[in-house]
Amino acid sequence: MTASSPTRIVALALAGALVAASLAEAAPAAAAPPRPNTFCAGTADINAALITSAVNLGSCAIQSRRIVLMRSDGKSGPAVDVPPPGRTIGNETLTTSGEYSLRVTNNDGMVSVTTEVPGAVRTLAPATDAACGEGAYNLEGGRWTRTLKWFYNSASAGRAGLSASATLADIRAGNTNMSTGQNNCGYATGTFSSTGAYQGTTSRYANINSSAQCTGNFPDGQNTDSWGPFDSSAAGTLAVTCYTYSGGAMTESDTYFGSNVGMVDSFPASCSGKYDLQSVSTHEWGHAFGLAHETSGTAEVMYPYSYPCALRRHLGKGDYNGMNSMY
Ligand SMILES: [Zn+2]
User: Fold this and answer.
1) For residue 283, how far is its CA from the centre of ligand 1 (angstroms)?
2) Domain 38-326 has what CATH class?
3) Could you tell me the residue ranges of all domains in the chain?
4) pTM, full prediction
5) Rounded CA separation 273/316 (Å)
6) Residue 21 C-alpha to ligand 1 middle, in angstroms?
């Protein structure tokens, strides 16, 4: 074989091509101007899915714009307005086919969005699940450092065909279940520092609309629970909680219970398609106190699916651990 064998010629040619390629890569690329997000201009609502990384308000002025989480059926779902600097506003929308979560944080000029949409509707048999066997939990990022003082628009219970006194009892029980850690696992109750204090009836309503969106009036300085119908865009919604915190301190939470979705004070003898108000209330208070959803414990209060004709009034291990970590 000689030095000028065909194999060596090919190798030299390849080496030359590689040098050429690396020279091309080393050439300075033309600096592409940063492309502004299409949603920065104007005043329209912003699809939460478009905000895939933190938005700098200095170059994309979306202060006070409305962020909307689109539902799987293509309708506009939960929404919140971009909060002031240093503040987070969250919306938890519980439906009969799962839960939507939308959390918007303005970290001193950088706006970020966290979302959660329902997966396949769960068909597990709830009665077979062990709420005491699994201890994972998730947090929203804020906790109460003072008593959660709340009001109830008891007159609005009539919208659901329910009595003011029975619904108040259920909602108060939900608050107590969560804040004192009622459970069936043998854990100590009444040891959390969380406290909720009912302040009486109010003529105000939760600052949440019939499309399951936190309104621009949230927060208004009062923690309010009330009833109202959900319209077709939010069909199947059981309840919505909007919460807000700053510097890790929760400062307000409102809950809107759906008056047209079959929520009841107690199940009829032959139950079908009914949802237990105290169970739903306990879940919503979990959000108000700072718990986010946890999907591994299907029998836990903070599991993001509600089952008709099933009770989820008492905390599971994960619910309890989450509250215990904050309070
Ligand atoms: Zn929830």
Assistant:
1) 6
2) alpha beta
3) 38-326
4) 0.87
5) 24
6) 55
